[in-house]
């Protein structure tokens, strides 16, 4: 299964403009370059080294990848790309996905949407027909991450994958995706890192989060599988694709734009997942409205900046309340809406500019519950800095 990101009213225009004269001028260059490459031992050696690296990474990593089968009632929130297990005669199979071992204790990382609503989970390894039961240990629905564990697989049958540093990923670097697209178990595809810090809605609440974009082909069934670099280190967890159109089956297809959750995001919450927690993005405990939505005369009357989030209410005993954030005090009618004016305006959080409440949630994705985060606000025209202590509780 794989989440499908299908933007509304998305149109794709392919512009093909070619001049015969330019083509004829380039042709000899291409021909001569190809001939030179064919005759060059160095070029041939480079090609072999590139291939050998891919083969080496595959050989080294495949014993750490698992194929996951979910049985039970299909959850209402399951993505439309949930892929029934092909070739299985079990009528209760509701989806398949991928995952990988992170240590020698049998812990397996995958996507939350792979295991959501499962009544029974089984995994099996490359070249092994036997299925092993697995249990969900911890989940992070808003990050689309889940941690499984199986204690029945002998330790000598698998090798945990090495977790890399996604902050060091470079655009243009090799990217190797492993998983089981369409139930085709343990397939390998290769491409490059097309972009980093690509913000896409992730998890059950669609909070915009940084992702790694790749053109390595990933499809339904790849979800939860590893995205590796040329050193056989996991740099991301394959989670969704951009699919402008769908096949006749209604299932989204790879279009060369896939996304992976950066492995550093998973590493940051892995101890809490192992402890059996349900991990959610920290909340600061405010409601607000984008300043940009207010008429210019209202912004001028209340001395508001052009951008930011005007705080409406602050939840008691929340991080925002503890930091001294002030909500609205004066009620006004604006059309059919009632607003509270006179509160603080949040302009930056964790160094990131804020224009909407979603910006606040996006900035908090990489923050740890119990940690601190700096908040820049405007209060009655003056800029101030507040420090929030992020709670571990669920603050709405």
TrEMBL record:
Q: Which InterPro entries match?
A: Chloro_Bact_Ser_Proteases (IPR051201), PDZ (IPR001478), PDZ_sf (IPR036034), Peptidase_S1_PA (IPR009003), Peptidase_S1C (IPR001940)
Keyword tags: Hydrolase, Protease
GO molecular function ontology, one term from the record: peptidase activity
A Pfam family: PDZ_2
Disordered: annotated segments: 73-96
The residue ranges of the PDZ domain are 267-381
**What are the Polar residues biased-composition ranges?**
83-95
Keyword check for Lipid metabolism: no
Q: Hydrolase: present as a keyword of the record?
A: yes
Provide the GO biological process annotations. proteolysis
Q: Which PROSITE patterns match?
A: PDZ (PS50106), PROKAR_LIPOPROTEIN (PS51257)
PANTHER family (alphabetical) = PEPTIDASE S12 (PTHR43343), PROTEASE DO-LIKE 8, CHLOROPLASTIC (PTHR43343:SF3)
Q: What's the protein called, per UniProt? A: Serine protease
